[in-house]
Amino acid sequence: MFDSLTEKLEATFKTLRGHGSLTDENIKEALKDIRRALLDADVNYKVARDFIAEVETEAIGAETIRSVDPGQLIVKIVHQKLISLLGSQTSDVYISEHPPSVIMICGLQGSGKTTLSSKLALRYKKKGKKVLLVAADPYRPAAIKQLQTLGKQIDVDVFEMGQANPVEICQKALSQASKQFVDLVILDTAGRLHIDDELMDELAEIKKSVKPQELLLVADAMTGQDAVNVAGTFHEKLEITGVCLSKMDGDARGGAALSIKRVTGCPIKLVGVGEKMTDLEAFHPERVASRILGMGDIVSLVEKAQDTIDVKEAAKLEKKLRKSQFTLDDFYQQIQQLKKMGPLESLMDMIPGAGKLMKGATIDPKSMVRVEAMILSMTPGERDKPQIINGSRRKRIAKGSGTTVQDINKMLKQFGQMKKMLKSFTKGGLRGLPKGISPF
Description:
The protein is α/β, with parallel strands linked by helices.
């Protein structure tokens, strides 16, 4: 996410840091590079132009702090303007205090409406809400089947009436939701390959009939400026209340995210960051701006950890670490916790400076699978005391895990190095950690 833009901005700031002080000339030169980086990221031309003008006005007017490191000053100004460009503050999905709340999901075919509807349902189910998904796309039989499959996967009821009229489907779903004390109704409406009057009229009729608290557009982040244009048209015709960007994990440029708020005036509320049902995040402008500038996003990382890490298990692990009793079983459990937090590349982006350190390196998810296979091919005694693993045991483990003896040797060596590192934590940093918190 934003990898290409981050790389180009970091190169510009590095060049600026080579200057002793800020001058109008080196500011303008840097802004040309930033403008080029924004356009390469598929940011709307007018948005990029206005953004550069705002940064230039503030940077050239910064006479009183010319002694500040040039790179730091420009980073500070760009960071503030990026936050403004992205929407200034987080705009959460509105849920009425008087249920059922209705969220109407709309968008073009292929944008990811059905998947996002299900992710949203799971998000609120986890918050204790009773959710009903509504298959309001009678034109594409696969859409109903897909929603039913996803609904079963997350254990959320799906209301459907086959090929009935969409307005009637939504009305009857809302009526049933009221009788069954449902907190949240999510309408997965029909899409088209392109915007047409028939689609807009139908959506407008559904909106008028059920009066949703939220009318959210799902836009494919990977389509760049097309996503911005689609959002503009939908907002003009339907007055959408927000945008959900799907497939953000596959977009290294980020032009849609950087343009939508300024072009349409509608906030980005949610972003899909992966294929799993749990891969849906609230859109935080300040955090996203920090990630674009390579500053990481520790707050989001901590939130992910809180959602996935078992506090009791973390406390047990902490005690083991303090006694230097970390085993391969513990290592395996930590891998499982890490996998729940999402793709490793995404996690690395949240750690300040990690992206720069990992530049050029590839994180192979299969390597983690191989490590799991090796550990699971060991006996309980071997996992508890790896030092007993001799040559014949290594051959057996390699055969059982589909790896080589060299792979086993490498993994055991890395585990030994990790234990040494954890011992140093125990003697120093780990003692300063609050109870119940592990260093993972």
